[in-house]
Design a protein that fits this description.
The structure is a homotetramer.
Chain A lengths: L16 H6 L10 H18 L5 E5 L3 H10 L7 E6 L2 H12 L3 E6 L8 H10 L5 E7 L1 E2 L4 E2 L2 H10 L5 E5 L11 H4 L3 E5 L11 E5 L1 H4 L14 H9 L9 H17 L1 H22 L15 E5 L6 H12 L14 E5 L6 H17 L8 H12 L10
Parallel strand pairs in A: 2-3, 2-4, 4-7, 7-8
Antiparallel strand pairs in A: 1-9, 5-6, 8-9, 10-11
Helix pairs in contact in A: 2-10, 5-6, 10-11, 11-14, 12-13, 13-14
Chain lengths: ~400, ~400, ~400, ~400
Amino acid sequence: MSDQNPVFIPGPTNIPDRLRHAMLVQTRDHRAPDFVETLAPVLEDTKRVFGTATGRVITFPASGTGGWEAAISNTLSPGDTVLVARYGMFSHRWIDMCERHGLDVQIIECEWGTGAPAARFEAALSADKARKIKAVLVTHNETATGVKSDIAAVRAAMDAASHPALLMVDCVSSLASMPFEMDAWGVDIAVAGSQKGFMLATGMVILGVSQKALDHMESAKLPRTFFDFRDMMNSNAKGGFPYTPPLQLIYGMRESLKMLFEEGLDNVYARHTRLAEGVRAATRAWGLDLVAQSPDLYSDTVSAIYVPKGFDSNALTDRAFTAYGLSFGIGLGQMNGRAFRIGHLGMLTDVMVLSGLAGIEMAMADLNYPIRLGSGVAAAQEHFRASRPAILKSAA
Amino acid sequence: MSDQNPVFIPGPTNIPDRLRHAMLVQTRDHRAPDFVETLAPVLEDTKRVFGTATGRVITFPASGTGGWEAAISNTLSPGDTVLVARYGMFSHRWIDMCERHGLDVQIIECEWGTGAPAARFEAALSADKARKIKAVLVTHNETATGVKSDIAAVRAAMDAASHPALLMVDCVSSLASMPFEMDAWGVDIAVAGSQKGFMLATGMVILGVSQKALDHMESAKLPRTFFDFRDMMNSNAKGGFPYTPPLQLIYGMRESLKMLFEEGLDNVYARHTRLAEGVRAATRAWGLDLVAQSPDLYSDTVSAIYVPKGFDSNALTDRAFTAYGLSFGIGLGQMNGRAFRIGHLGMLTDVMVLSGLAGIEMAMADLNYPIRLGSGVAAAQEHFRASRPAILKSAA
Amino acid sequence: MSDQNPVFIPGPTNIPDRLRHAMLVQTRDHRAPDFVETLAPVLEDTKRVFGTATGRVITFPASGTGGWEAAISNTLSPGDTVLVARYGMFSHRWIDMCERHGLDVQIIECEWGTGAPAARFEAALSADKARKIKAVLVTHNETATGVKSDIAAVRAAMDAASHPALLMVDCVSSLASMPFEMDAWGVDIAVAGSQKGFMLATGMVILGVSQKALDHMESAKLPRTFFDFRDMMNSNAKGGFPYTPPLQLIYGMRESLKMLFEEGLDNVYARHTRLAEGVRAATRAWGLDLVAQSPDLYSDTVSAIYVPKGFDSNALTDRAFTAYGLSFGIGLGQMNGRAFRIGHLGMLTDVMVLSGLAGIEMAMADLNYPIRLGSGVAAAQEHFRASRPAILKSAA
Amino acid sequence: MSDQNPVFIPGPTNIPDRLRHAMLVQTRDHRAPDFVETLAPVLEDTKRVFGTATGRVITFPASGTGGWEAAISNTLSPGDTVLVARYGMFSHRWIDMCERHGLDVQIIECEWGTGAPAARFEAALSADKARKIKAVLVTHNETATGVKSDIAAVRAAMDAASHPALLMVDCVSSLASMPFEMDAWGVDIAVAGSQKGFMLATGMVILGVSQKALDHMESAKLPRTFFDFRDMMNSNAKGGFPYTPPLQLIYGMRESLKMLFEEGLDNVYARHTRLAEGVRAATRAWGLDLVAQSPDLYSDTVSAIYVPKGFDSNALTDRAFTAYGLSFGIGLGQMNGRAFRIGHLGMLTDVMVLSGLAGIEMAMADLNYPIRLGSGVAAAQEHFRASRPAILKSAA
């Protein structure tokens, strides 16, 4: 049944037919001119999505976690200090990776539901007179809590402290769905993936890398081969990969970029905001609270929602799946049992979102949540009606 | 956008991925053993869906209209009398075809919203002392009005009149979605199509034919070649077609039958009833009326719903399409402007149906219908919750 | 195995991925604007392939046989005389259809391996002082014998006799593969199909119809509904079909036309000639004879090849299938057992053709044919090398 | 054009439709029961292909190179010594990776065209009294030279030296195409990929890991997170991945295993041998030499073939691609310009192989190679005929 209903996990997202078909491509010779002519424009066009003119795009056949590893291992050496704020599962995991790679991780502990603490970053960086901190690591969109952080504010904090550290950003669950301005925000490495805003299958991690980050490649002592920027850039320059490329995903990426540019990136972002507002309207109608603590933190790609006291969010997501064939995100880490998540990113429509809201409402009612059937749907309907784009084109 | 949202027209229906992939088959030699081994079981297994052990299944690469033409041209001769009741657009079109083929059509005019009038059939047949009537033509499920007729009652009427006419039934929009009992009901020719309950692309008309009907083949004088039962049966017996077969649809049909039998025909019918009841609950919640005049006539595959006086149903379906990317059936014939239709057949889930209800509600609200947003959805949710099957399996 | 090797039957042809994916389209509402905007240009663009500016294109969800039935039933009345030359299985079948529809068929019997006998047509038409002959029926490319007829010569014969009969041409296995000039040749109805030069699945018959043919619609007395030109044209004018259209095939047709026009029709024809010449070079190298009696008759889409005396062509095609997974056309009608056929139409490459030649050579050797392994392949290779287009582009 | 012709690169291989369709699966929730029930049997069944009952299978979303990195980083520490023989590009690259990861690489230089030197391994291991060598790294099938090494002999050498080092084997281009016996050969880590014998898209590296190798996980000091065995095994035990899994490839893998087991692994290997023998017969007929120096070294998945003195192998592969749309493997490393490669692994048929041979022959002739057109094809045909399996079943 899960093939018929959309998924409402915060990625991988529902793959539009157009992209499924693009990825159906039969094996071609990745050393032949076809491929060479395909790869270069894909890398170039992806820069627009990252918001960079001066950086470059590097991709590996891996998941987002591999992208984090590429980010640190190409720029840092064992013993280097990195500054990270922990406010969710994904920032937590990145910290864990840094520790395993022998980095000295200076952690700013934050309450889950909050975002990147620019002021505390500034204080920590200002205190670092010896400039031991080599990189600041930030999760743009914390998928576990549905919190979007203000990267521009982090950059401002770094600038205020006149600190030369690299700024690395995890934008796996935000890129191509929410505005991202790598150049304007002074981001040095941004890590994204094929399976979220790009609406493709999992299997390609996509990085935006600044020249400043590239300048660290030779001095970085962390060992790497599969994720080595140098090998990849050298091969890319000749039109290839240092090993077998993920051909189907690259053709998929070409088509994904076409779709994004046809719709217009600003329209893509506006659509995500609009759908997210619908979900938030439903949440209010149910009388439930978001994990994100204030409107400026609300993510437009995923909403983490507290269940009422005395209820178990895992029972809710289980019910939705077993009774109605619907997949929602479970609560991760300290949110397990306390919150569930609705993914609303990628190629969704109003009525797809409404179907998810209608389904979770039924599951809530089955479990005797104090909500009224149809109330969340009605609130979202009201929002969708009021905010409907003037002209609606078919996606032929 | 229409590729992402389900369609709610009463056919062609949403094609499950499993069947789309089955129809992706590359060209094979239709004279090779592969094909021979594929076709025979498909024809045999389809008999179960028609509810016939004694009849046979004949298929042509055409639409349902072609099946009607096959039915009459293989059994009747110019000047033959047929008895038909007109209570909707599809019964009307069949009448028109008979007239064009030089048949003498004895029409029983009925109000739209009613079904096959067994008593009036009996009267007409009893009055036909000369046995001029060669066939009684009945539309099992009138797609224009959402009315299901009682074929067993028509058969009882024919038997009561001891009339030897053939009984021909259009079950295009009912077969494989609602119970059909060709043998039990004494149906001589039943006409179905690939694009409704079989969930495939349009392009194959599928007929169940009794031995009694086959006995008329040689004497029937209406000209036909493409639709000739004899050529088809002769070729089928050797494993082929008298011309190029619709290979992709036949492979699709094989997989469709597997899906139907895996779910179980009774479960398929029960699922259609349950979803239809949800739509009817929503209709009541909106304060709207079905075109079908009484519960015994309610179709489980399509609901035709009157819009309130003063409203134009075409404006409603247009709004749903242009504003929300949703396709519903327009009002046909005398219902044009007065009623819209919700198709709820084929491979649908609860939440897919809810998405359609939520969408049409928004369109109604946009046009100032006197309905409350979320009310229809809530009524359907309530029904779906109450009637949820105990165990829900994944469709892996 | 047949999914991996190309088929070498004279249609349906190997479907390029690009068209298979185009036909994967999910169900859309055929009454919605999307479809309306799709259908009209498809019909219009198809005119270029027929070589007509003044005629129109009409399509039905059926096979080529249905197209023949549409051609005669929309223009003729029972008892009308038609003039046909019989020189193969397909001309034979069309004759049979005319007879079943009550037409008076004046047959010119020709030896199989010859084409349309322009001089004998002229004689027959000149002798028809009463102008009883209403139509001349010609098979452009006789798939059973691999013979291409000269339609311009038939038109010249008709003109020489100043005869007003309609000229109907079966171009099922030639259109979109070999030049066809409906206007220049004065063809009134041309019948083609989706599954040959258009490289699609079977299921759509495509007719080019002149205004002169359309002028016969009202007076034509043969009964028809499914295949009625008037209903179809009326519905097409409003953007639809009189019944459920074969949506997937129409989207496929749109993409097929794009492919044909991208390659250029002249290039498509030249490619077919070049590949056919390769097959004929192989045939000569094997010391075998074509059924087509002279080079001017050689078809560029299918070659029918006599097996040596004492050999059974069915054993050969069986061997190729069972031993090497290759499908070739069997000998039809009086050629059964005496000739086999190699289809070389649609989207084929040099090396695909060579694979077929290599395979049939192995089967011949297995059956002790007096041929040398590799000899046919080498002759075709020599031709392909010598005639290679200067520039070869990838079909990205 | 490359979509129509098979590719003859030594991987990625031509993907059968059945597997392309399996990988078309829409996004599902990788934390839902569906996925859990899918992953475990896939991992378990893959053990059969590795030939291990006691080891386990670990997979990462990456290419083969990533698998090498996983192999060393989960078992070794900086400064550890590894023993490797260099006899081709892939053994060379693995050496390079080890050096970059701070390992002390003891290299046995061998002539390209030879395989793993068991005797020299034994000498080196016997000389290592201090047991500094922690691992022996061997490339089972050197894709650059078309050389298959005798892993059992390497194991025997290790045993003869009573050396406790781990035995790591790259079987990327051999597994699922040529026999591999992990348990019998005492292999500790075997590295394979999705895109060769498994006939899938690139993107999943698949490792067979012995308990002995797993025992090194905790002590191994090379940093890793993405490729950490422990995280993966812990997550797999709960039915998931430590990050987003490559869902489409896992569903593809499930179907690939079905295909392999349906054919039977022994039949799969025999088919590869038979096709490879055909290519070698053609090579002899052309008067060319294999890079592999003796028959016991011949790979059944790829043949590297020297071009005659004075010719440039790159010109040949370019010609084949630009003139005939065929992709062959170029000469890698010291073979660049001197040899080209024919990949003959994955789902190929006799006639597909013949099409490649016919194509490269044309390219050779175009470049004035001293070969006779059709000669290689004929030699392969002769072999294929003689070795044809008694019964050939369709791959319905």
